[in-house]
UniProtKB/TrEMBL annotation:
Domain of life: Bacteria
Primary location: membrane
Keywords, in A-Z order: Cell membrane, Membrane, Transmembrane, Transmembrane helix, Transport
Native organism: Xylanimonas allomyrinae
UniProt protein name: MFS transporter
Transmembrane segments: 55-78, 90-111, 123-145, 166-184, 190-209, 235-261, 281-302, 314-332, 338-357, 378-399, 405-426
Gene Ontology MF annotations: transmembrane transporter activity
Length: 456
């Protein structure tokens, strides 16, 4: 029987999938990052002020991390549905949920207006964002990767990854623009709300684009051959629990250091009067916006190169660059020079791009087709909890406890080492068959196991 992966797909179809994936994930991550970027500089004084300035910042970062805690639940739900009913319907649902939650944050009264109800409602909306983000990534990845020709799978896999730095670029750019248009008290009074409210327009665009994209050919094939798994999550943990853990550790290794920027810690750190660095918010947000372009470029380049050099090798290069970036981060940032701050975050975002570029195809090629949506969604979400969820909070706590940024550097180096070790035990399976006919090689994701990955 001829696989549905084999028919010639027009360039228009593939471009539509690529564009729809980028647009959808950009909007999703814009919504998720706008909260994190605003947490230390906006949400802390407006929603958690009674706790005192320093504690309010800690609580604001913790509230941002709560969204990560609910990403695994979102991944469980979306992964199950993605393996049962298809990848596309899940993506439409997560997009709408994220947009509603983000727009509602922009309408939310502050603590001074409605008291304790304000932070409680804010946390509820962050939970909804977390559920949506947990379900978004896996479906977007599979829609892109499972449509791709085998020799360009890494390139197509950059589509959902590019959406992450684009989301950060839009989030920091929108807040930066409003800090200029509504400076000082006006920014805290109403200016910060505009980027949140803009989500309603972006969601309408994303919904239109995603509705025009066809279902993943792999899922279509599984459904046609009646190979859809009725209990994909149970099957995943029965047969691939160690793989889920290892992939989650890979994710944690890159997500923790990278989240120093979109998580809002570095923006808070360099503008906080107590640190003595003394940078102004507007140029800092402009620098973050520019560094997002570096992240975008390295993501695209690394994902594309992985089709030639292999996913695992690309990751190893990324870990080496990340180690250099985290060691150089605070020596550069602590100078108080905006140019060196820009250099530091460009290095860190560049390193993130090298590991995130091949991540989609690397993770997708590790799991069997019938449980792939559950496998990559849950691994990614659990890794995000272990890595980025509370990285800004941990960094802030280490800073307050030790009084120095050196402890944060040690923390980031340890996360990098964990990611490197986890990658080292995984097999490079670049080009492995992804469809329903893929056979026993799918059970060989670890180095040292017998067998050679089949090339499709």
């Amino acid at each position: 029987m001829t696989s549905v992966l084999d028919p010639v797909r027009t360039a228009v179809d593939r471009r539509r999938v690529f564009a729809a994936t980028i647009i959808g994930t950009t909007i999703e991550w814009y919504d998720f990052f706008i909260y994190a970027t605003a947490s230390g500089v906006v949400l802390a004084p407006l929603f958690f002020a009674p706790a005192g300035r320093q504690v309010a910042v800690l609580v604001a970062f913790a509230s941002s991390g709560i969204g990560f805690l609910f990403r695994p639940l979102g991944a469980f739900i979306a992964g199950h549905l993605g393996d049962r009913v298809g990848r596309r319907p899940v993506l439409v649902g997560t997009l709408i949920l994220m947009g509603v939650a983000t727009t509602a944050v922009g309408l939310l009264p502050t603590y001074h207006q409605i008291g304790l109800a304000a932070p409680v409602l804010l946390l509820v909306l962050r939970v909804l964002q977390g559920l949506s983000a947990g379900g978004e990534w896996g479906g977007a990845v599979l829609l892109a990767v499972e449509h791709a020709p085998v020799r360009r799978r890494g390139f197509f896999g950059t589509a959902p990854q590019i959406g992450v730095p684009l989301g950060l670029l839009l989030a920091s750019g929108a807040l930066g623009l409003m800090s200029v248009l509504a400076p000082g008290d006006a920014f805290l009074a109403w200016g910060w709300r505009v980027p949140f409210l803009a989500s309603v327009v972006l969601i309408a665009v994303g919904h239109y684009v995603r509705r025009r994209v066809g279902e993943s050919p792999v899922f279509t094939e599984l459904a046609a051959r009646k190979k859809v798994t009725s209990r994909p999550i149970a099957a995943l943990f029965r047969t691939h629990a160690p793989l889920v853990l290892v992939v989650a550790l890979v994710m944690a290794g890159t997500n923790g250091p990278s989240y120093m920027i979109p998580g809002g810690f570095l923006q808070q750190y360099v503008t906080d009067p107590d640190t003595g660095i003394g940078l102004e918010l507007s140029p800092v947000l402009a620098a973050v916006t520019f560094s997002s372009l570096v992240w975008l470029a390295t993501t695209w380049i690394a994902g594309t190169l992985s089709d030639r050099v292999g996913r695992r090798r690309m990751f190893m290069i990324g870990w080496a660059v990340q180690a250099v970036a985290v060691l150089a981060l605070f020596p550069l940032v602590n100078t108080g020079e905006i140019a060196l701050f820009l250099l530091a975050i460009c290095l860190l975002n560049g390193a993130t791009g090298i590991t995130m570029g091949p991540m989609s195809s690397f993770f997708a090629e590790l799991f069997p087709s019938s449980i792939r949506a559950s496998g990559i969604s849950i691994s990614y979400a659990v890794g995000a909890v272990l890595g980025g969820a509370f990285a800004p909070l941990i960094a802030q706590w280490l800073l307050r406890t030790t009084g120095t940024s050196g402890a944060i550097t040690v923390y980031l180096v340890l996360l990098t080492a964990v990611g490197l070790a986890a990658t080292a035990v995984l097999r490079d399976r670049t080009g492995i068959a992804l469809g329903a006919d893929a056979g026993a090689e799918e059970a060989l994701p670890f180095v040292g196991r017998r067998g050679t990955p089949a090339q499709s």
